[in-house]
Amino acid sequence: MDAQHEFDSLRKAAVEELAPLTTIEFGTLSEVYRNRPSPDGHGTVSLGPYTKHQCWEKGKNRSTYIHAGRVESLRQDLENGKRFQQTIAGLASDAIQRSREQRLCAARPDAAPTAEKNLQTQCLAETYRETEQFVAQLHLRLVRQKTPENLTQHFEEGLRDAIARDARRIVGELFNDRQLVPDDTPPLPGEIVHSARPVTVQTLFSSIVPKRRYLYSPDSRNGRAPLDLREAVGTLQPPASLKPIPVLYVETDGTGVPSRAKELAGRPGKQADGTAKTREAKLGCVFTQTSTDEDGDPMRDPDSTSYVGTMGDCRESGELLRAEAIRRGLALAQTVIFLGDGAAWIWENARLYFPTAIQILDFYHAVEHLGVLVKALYGDSEFSTAQQSVWASELKRSDSLGIIAQAEGLLESLPDLDQEKQDIVRREIAYFTTHAERTRYGYFREQGYFIGSGVIEAGCKSVIGRRLKQSGMFWSGSGAENILGLRCLIKSPHFQAAWQARRPIIAARQSKARRWKAAS
Length: 520
Hints:
This protein is of the alpha+beta class. It has 4 domains: 2-107, no CATH class; 128-175; 229-362 and 452-503, no CATH class; 364-446, no CATH class.
């Protein structure tokens, strides 16, 4: 009865909370701009913003333009609707949980003190229900057939498939959890928001179908889904071969692309006045290595390098790079190497999207920092150049720990060093301390790994520079994004497969456009 009284009090509190809500509405508000011919007949002018209310009504998406005088009151009604949904959802969740606890306690009267623990166990069993069902079927088979044939093979293959089905469902639920994977990119002026559009995404555990927001522009008749990966690359399947990959390399870097003035408005840059002349394009590549040469140096597999790129932020770049690594056989890789320079966003992406990879700092960037360190300690002299060579050889032969210790000792033994140079020395010591695990070049070379990120450095020049950084070019964001995606496909070994994969996508778009035209 105590539990029932507690639930009644929660229900009463919910009713009291909802009582002041006189009117409620559901849906979303968005601002829409309309392009109209200019009065002088040259070009167009943008009119707006107009406020549009979108909601589901009788199974259909209804859109209504709202008068400016009603916008604030409707916005308040929509907030009331959200409050109503949250309150009812919380009450329903509490009721379901209490009902489960009661069923558990009824099934096992002696388990009442541990009802919460039993509930957690039940939820865990629900998460792995495919695996539980397979084990139960296996037990039944053992009972019926005392010495079943091929038991080991049946058990291993069946258990693997059952776990994969459970994992696929778990990954699908995580993709649809908007607290973990937010999908709140604001629409651009004139774009219409469509919620919960499904899309097929390839994962390590086969395909899943998460739902995400789709933003459509009636003026340009183009749409985009911020959570989507590249459409064509996303449709490519992982390699059918189950042959293990000895070493899979992942590299990423960024380079500036000259952009139009409106793309750079308010964007900080490296110019003297703090403004920017370029926007950073982020490029990633994946390639494999199966052997070393006669001297023990690593050899990149021919035609094994594929690229992905975006003008978006570092997280979008990480998602694209992980998707490409999965497509290239990340699950089959015996060793995964993540190579990059010292940029913080690169190693954050490595932590988020490739947590089990061996991280290696580009050796030549590390040597550049050695040059800054010895110049601060000894000035710009022949001795400092010689000392840089000595430390570079030590770094390549071993690691950075000895150099860190020597630099700290020199800093203490040079009290007359001015404050600016002391700060530089401390900064470089902190740099090598941060990357100590990533600068074990002696060990990496013994294992036959690459220690330089020359592949992605060359990619920035060949994929981006030769097409997007020519004389007189100034790019819009969408234009650079489109050309960058095409360049990545052209420079990758799966261009033909991607081209074939785009045909059904284009056909579906054209068919949809014809239906809309016929309906209008």
